[in-house]
């Protein structure tokens, strides 16, 4: 069971205490899909690096959170979005297969071991029902937040090419007001509906 969450005024920073997968080397990430009570809207936050891109709150799992990834999910959702809520279920594990960072011959190339692509990150996301939105939170000076319907969130995650977050959103209980788009482990679309969206 997750420890009682105690919000801090300052966000944790740095990667010296981050956890990585022992099998793939992927960075371990946890976060939430924060839904309203009616489950017809989700809160999205602006990316700290790209202000015009909207994502879900998540961040690196640290060594003192290894026993229960929900602790990271609660912490990151507070730090990035100022949300207090109740975790209601664990969503399926998803992977970020975007290009690995590298230089020279490795720049913008996927890396693999024995034909299996190495994910950049392994995501452990949880569905959350939002109970309270704070007016000030650790990253409120550099992030905005907004409520989105499924179709709006789908559009934003598609625009940002965050297929793994869209996969997690599809796995949540949010009311789907348009057809879901499913992504395979290589980031390929499993249906063509996404190509016919007009925003």
From TrEMBL:
It holds the Pfam family NUDIX. Residues 25-170 form the Nudix hydrolase domain. Its cofactor is Mg(2+). GO terms for molecular function: bis(5'-adenosyl)-hexaphosphatase activity; bis(5'-adenosyl)-pentaphosphatase activity; bis(5'-nucleosyl)-tetraphosphatase activity; endopolyphosphatase activity; inositol phosphate phosphatase activity; inositol-1,5-bisdiphosphate-2,3,4,6-tetrakisphosphate 1-diphosphatase activity; inositol-1,5-bisdiphosphate-2,3,4,6-tetrakisphosphate 5-diphosphatase activity; inositol-1-diphosphate-2,3,4,5,6-pentakisphosphate diphosphatase activity. The keyword Cell membrane does not apply. It comes from the Eukaryota. Gene3D superfamilies: Nucleoside Triphosphate Pyrophosphohydrolase. One of its GO terms (biological process) is diadenosine pentaphosphate catabolic process. Signal peptide: none annotated. One of its GO terms (cellular component) is nucleus. InterPro entries: DDP-like_NUDIX, NUDIX_hydrolase-like_dom_sf, NUDIX_hydrolase_dom. Keywords: Hydrolase, Magnesium, Metal-binding. PANTHER family: DIPHOSPHOINOSITOL POLYPHOSPHATE PHOSPHOHYDROLASE, DIPHOSPHOINOSITOL-POLYPHOSPHATE DIPHOSPHATASE. This is Polyphosphate phosphatase. It comes from Komagataella phaffii (strain GS115 / ATCC 20864).
């Amino acid at each position: 069971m997750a420890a009682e969450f105690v919000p801090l005024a300052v966000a944790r920073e740095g990667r010296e205490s981050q956890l990585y997968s022992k099998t793939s080397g992927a960075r371990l990430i946890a976060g939430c899909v924060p839904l309203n009570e009616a489950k017809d809207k989700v809160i999205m936050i602006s990316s700290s690096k790209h202000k015009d891109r909207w994502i879900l709150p998540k961040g690196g799992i640290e060594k003192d959170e290894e026993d229960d990834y929900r602790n990271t999910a609660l912490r990151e959702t507070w730090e990035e979005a100022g949300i207090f809520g109740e975790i209601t279920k664990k969503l399926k594990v998803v992977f970020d297969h975007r290009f690995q960072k590298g230089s020279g011959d490795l720049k913008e190339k996927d890396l693999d071991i024995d034909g299996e692509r190495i994910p950049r990150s392994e995501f452990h996301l949880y569905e959350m029902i939002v109970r309270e939105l704070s007016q000030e939170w650790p990253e409120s000076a550099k992030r905005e937040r907004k409520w989105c319907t499924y179709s709006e969130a789908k559009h934003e995650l598609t625009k940002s090419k965050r297929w793994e977050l869209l996969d997690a959103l599809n796995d949540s209980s949010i009311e789907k007001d348009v057809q879901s788009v499913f992504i395979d482990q290589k980031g390929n679309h499993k249906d063509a509906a996404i190509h016919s969206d007009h925003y």
